[in-house]
Write a structure and sequence with these properties.
InterPro entries: HTH-type_LysR_regulators (IPR050950), LysR_HTH_N (IPR000847), LysR_subst-bd (IPR005119), WH-like_DNA-bd_sf (IPR036388), WH_DNA-bd_sf (IPR036390). Belongs to the LysR transcriptional regulatory family. It comes from Bradyrhizobium denitrificans. The chain is an alpha/beta fold. The chain is rod-shaped and about 105 Å long. The N and C termini lie far apart (about 65 Å). The model has no long low-confidence stretch (mean pLDDT about 90).
Length: about 300
């Protein structure tokens, strides 16, 4: 039977201090408890570890041979204990996060910055993926959790929690009038040059289905695959982008403003996606808490 860590600690202390009395004081136990721990090792391996005289303890050759291994084992166990404490107290560790491209651009920087300022020792692996890839990346373990415009996927093994929602908006150039409008209608932008996401994307599908229910269809002047492309075109005056209001990164596009669209109002969500049968690590849980706090202040 391998010696216990307690037995190894007693062995190393008696060897270093040359005294059962001093070792007992260091471990805050009785002298008889130290003697028992040493005797248990000796009996277990049929090895004599110390020669005892009336005045001192003298380590045997077997003890001197074993002590270096005992010290390595104790150092490793102590290092593991420190690591575990650091992980629990979010002073160390690594988290992997999958985010949809729009969230990565518009919402994540502030969350990321806040988390890093509070927990600089934690490493973050960031995977920016298309919204349709979030589920696969999280479920196969490449990411501990995902953040993006994810609806309930209907997968029992997945957990989806809505963190915020905002209406689809018309995003245009600030000209002193556009940004002053509290709301626009879909009918009001039918004749404008509109930039929309391509067919097959979730945003486009949601728009087309909602308008079809009212007997209308919106024909865009431009169709794009990336949110940043739509915003860049709008910033250059090519037209009005139709996107969730929270997807406008104001620091990157300070000349643009988002005006919510109504009749009908179409909401898009930002959700937390995780595996239902796995708990989040302390660091990941803290990241989610910060994200919830910051995103709730942007919810519309």
């Amino acid at each position: 039977m391998p010696p216990s860590l307690r037995q190894l600690e007693a062995l190393v202390l008696v060897y270093r201090l040359g005294s059962i009395t001093k070792a007992a004081a260091e471990m805050r136990v009785t002298q008889s408890a130290i003697s028992l721990l040493i005797r248990q090792i000796e009996e277990n391996f049929q090895l004599k570890l110390f020669d005892r005289t009336t005045r001192a303890l003298h380590p045997t050759a077997a003890c001197r041979e074993a002590i270096m291994a005992a010290e390595r084992i104790l150092a490793g166990a102590q290092g593991l204990s420190r690591r575990m404490r650091d992980l629990a107290e979010i002073k160390a560790g690594r988290i992997s996060i999958a985010v949809s491209a729009g969230v990565a651009s518009a919402l994540l920087p502030r969350v990321f910055s806040t988390f890093r300022s509070r927990h600089p020792e934690v490493s973050i692996d960031l995977l920016d993926v298309a919204p349709d890839e979030l589920l696969a990346v999280v479920m196969d373990g490449r990411a501990e959790f995902g953040l993006g415009s994810v609806e309930d996927e209907g997968v029992p093994e997945a957990r989806v929690e809505t963190l915020m929602r905002s209406p689809l908006s018309a995003i245009g150039i600030k000209d002193g009038e556009f940004e002053q409008q509290r709301r626009l209608t879909w009918d009001g932008i039918m004749s404008a040059d509109v930039i929309m996401m391509r067919h097959g994307t979730r945003i486009r599908r949601q728009i087309d289905e909602a308008l079809a229910q009212t007997g209308r269809a919106l024909k865009p002047a431009w169709e794009v695959s990336l949110i940043t492309t739509a915003l860049a075109l709008t910033a250059e005056g090519a037209g009005i982008s139709i996107l969730p209001g929270h997807m406008l990164p104001k620091a990157q596009f300070p000349t643009l403003a988002a005006v919510p669209l109504s009749q009908p109002t179409i909401y898009r969500h930002v959700s937390l996606l995780s595996r239902a049968d796995f708990g989040l690590s302390p660091a990941a849980q803290r990241f989610v808490e910060i994200a919830k706090d910051l995103l709730s202040n942007k919810a519309g």
